[in-house]
Write a structure and sequence with these properties.
By secondary structure, this protein is mainly alpha-helical. The protein has helices spanning about 15-30, 30-65, 70-115, 120-125, 130-170, 175-180.
Length: about 180
Amino acid sequence: MKDPYAVTKQDLEFWSVLKIIFRSVWFEFKGLVVLFLLFASVSGILMTLAPKLLQEIIDGVIAGVFVNQSFWKLLFFYGACLLGGELGGFISWQFSNFIATKVEDKWRYAALGHYYALYLAWHDRRDSGSMGNKIEKGGSAIYAMMHELLGAQLIVSFITLIFVISYSFWLFPFIGFLIVLP
């Protein structure tokens, strides 16, 4: 397998950097990535079911068709969906934070290792403070890309969107098509 931390001059575009970072994440943390996606999927499913249960509760109350026990059962499942969805989102956020921090540390360590392995004449010609600052900014950018943009926000929201669109297609295919059309 290709070294997950190998970077060439051709890899300096955004999508190439993203691909390299995700390759290193998959190389180091396969199990945690699978757990992250599992908890994000659980969160997406439960947060998709919660509005349907609330709709059933409101429709039953308005129509007056509830038997006392079925109302409390639906209310319990509604609360369980909300709690489970938020808990799944929180756990996936924690996995994302852990993975992003570890990948950031590995990349910083790799960059510092290459930096310190350079010969002394190279260090004499350059300002070491500015090089350290660039390595620090690079590590912060990796963390921001992994956690803020992709892990904590985009992936969980995208998984929830997939479940909402598939649920819309299942209930009302025409409305589901209108959601996907734009």
